[in-house]
Every structure is written in C-alpha cells, then in structure tokens.
Design a protein that fits this description.
By secondary structure, this protein is mainly alpha-helical. The chain is 43% helix and 9% strand. It is built from six helices and four strands. The strands form two sheets. The chain has a two-stranded antiparallel ribbon with strand order 1-2. Strands 3-4 form a two-stranded antiparallel ribbon. β3 and β4 form a beta hairpin.
C-alpha cells in the first residue's frame, strides 16, 4: 500500500512511524487538488480499513476487532483535529487522557512492542499516539510540519539540515507566498510624486 493521502499531494512520506501520522493529517482536503478523504462515510471507512490493515501487516499485529463504523470515522476526525493543532505548534485544547489500548509484547530478539487493540477508531488512535510519543523522544516530531501556505497546509517532513523548512514545496507554495509578499510591498510603497511644481 502506498500512503495515498500523502502521495496525492506529491509529498514524500515521512520516515518510519511518522508516515502514519502524516497520512492521517493529509486526509484533509486541499482545494482544488483533492477532497477530504474522511468526509464521505464509504470512502472514510475504506481509508480506515486499508490504513489499519497495512499498519498491522507492517508490524505483525492483529487487525482491528471490527469493521469501521461511523463512530470510528468520527474518532479519527477528532484525532486529526488534535494532531493538526500539535503539528502547527498550538497548545492543545484538550489535554485529558484518551481511552485507547496498547498491549505490550516482546519480539524474538527481545524488542518491546506495543500493539493497538480495539475497533478501527481506537486502534488507529492508539497506533498514532504511540508513534507521536516515539517521535517526540527521538526528536523527529518537530520535523513533521504543516505547510505555511494558508491555501495548502499539507503535512510534510522537513528534511532540511537545520529544520528550517516552512513549505511542503518551495516551487509551488514558496513561490506563491513570495509573490504575495512582493505584491504587498509594492502596494505599501509610496508612489513617487511626478507632478511638476510650478
């Protein structure tokens, strides 16, 4: 499976588990390029089914305990809203605990794993929060950003050496922002007085 929501914006997926978080963020629609992948129930359920099955397969985990339902889609949309605030650097509006289940286990080489449990909404939320926690601990979380272009806001992984990227694509979003800034400067500049004094 490819990361369909991320790749539809021609964005390179983030490394490791941040690709899952990025994929969820990029389900948001960006006009005129794509619609919200979670807005229509049938498509949202399919996205949730495909994403959880893929992530479970990648890690050797069991899949969610049921087929996606309306409540699962709503839970994932709420999670996406919370993640957008965090990724944009805004303080969370809800700091309370989330009731999800991660079951610890050991692999054959002694590595600890935490596998998500439950129906698709809680399953995905558990997997996503686990990846956010790991990324915060290895200091890659700050590299997952929302494009600064107001008409875009797609999620991208900043691969610049000094973590200074602000646009998912400098040629499109960066040029649009620079053009707007240039026009604003020209508009604000005083007009030279060309009338001759008598």
């Amino acid at each position: 499976m490819s990361w369909t929501s991320t790749e539809r914006y021609r964005i390179r997926p983030a490394p490791g588990g941040l690709a899952l978080v990025q994929e969820l963020l990029n389900t948001r629609g960006i006009t005129p390029y794509a619609t919200d992948a979670l807005a229509e129930q049938t498509a949202a359920r399919q996205w949730l089914r495909d994403t959880t099955a893929y992530w479970a397969g990648e890690h050797g985990w069991g899949t969610p305990s049921a087929a996606p339902a309306d409540a699962d889609v709503q839970q994932v949309m709420t999670l996406r809203d919370r993640l957008e605030r965090l990724t944009a650097g805004h303080p969370p509006t809800d700091t309370g605990p989330t009731t999800v289940t991660l079951t610890p286990a050991l692999t054959a080489d002694g590595t600890v794993t935490l596998s998500p449990q439950g129906s698709p909404g809680p399953w995905l939320e558990a997997a996503v929060w686990a990846e956010v926690l790991l990324a915060q601990h290895d200091h890659t979380w700050k590299r997952l950003k929302l494009c600064k272009e107001p008409q875009c806001r797609s999620a991208f992984y900043d691969r610049s050496r000094n973590n200074s990227g602000v646009w998912h694509d400098v040629r499109t979003c960066g040029n649009a922002a620079n053009l707007r800034a240039s026009r604003a400067r020209r508009k604000a500049a005083p007009t030279p007085n060309t009338t001759e004094q008598a």
